[in-house]
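Collaborator request log, item 7. Partner lab (contact: R.S.) asked for a structural prediction of ATP synthase subunit b to inform their binding assays.
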Amino acid sequence: MLSRIVFVSANAVKSSGPLGAGLVQLSHLHTSPNSQAPVPALPEKGGKTRHGIIPEELFQLLYAKTGVTGPYMLGAGLLTYILSKEIYIINHETFAAACMGTVIIYGVRKFGPDVAAFADKLNEEKVQKAQEVKDLAMTSLAQAVQDEKKEQWRAEGRQMLFDAKRNNVAMLLETNRRERVHMVTNDVKKRLDYQIALQTLHRRMEQEHMVNWVEKNVVTSITPQQEKTSIAKCITDLKVLAKVQQAKATA
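Returned to partner:
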């Protein structure tokens, strides 16, 4: 199909059969954005060909410049060039391919119409079955749409009930959330109070241990001689203070 579009010209497309008309309509459809025309259906059969595989549009394209023999001369020239340049070399595979192609062409021409008719019959049966399935599905879907509309009409009266239930559920969720927040707050407060009491206990025990340790070290560091010296010094200081007080009293 793409090869036909490449070789076709505007005049050749307009003068061709249903395929050309369809291509022209399709080109106008795509070039006019404001057009609302439906897309034409694809043709069931292809366009005309010569020798089974060469599109007719190629001959029509070359006819205006080269005449009737132009396409044949083009093909013969290409074949001569390929053989002369040894791009393709004729060997035993060439004869085998020619024999196979002859058998295939004979089979297509001999049995092609019968096979095509049989295939068309099978295709029509498949299309008919598919149409029946489609019609059944459309009927069931249409009934389902009607049932759905009826259920929607019934559900409209329950909207207020759904709103009340939704509000009740929201209130329950909010109550549950606040209870959990209160429980978490109490647990956190208890843990903080425990940590404060534990730190206070540790601080008091450290202070007591430090006082005891200092007192013990001070006591153990005093020797008997120092103790006697300290007592004598205290007695001397007391005597001096007594004399000073007596002097003040007599004065």
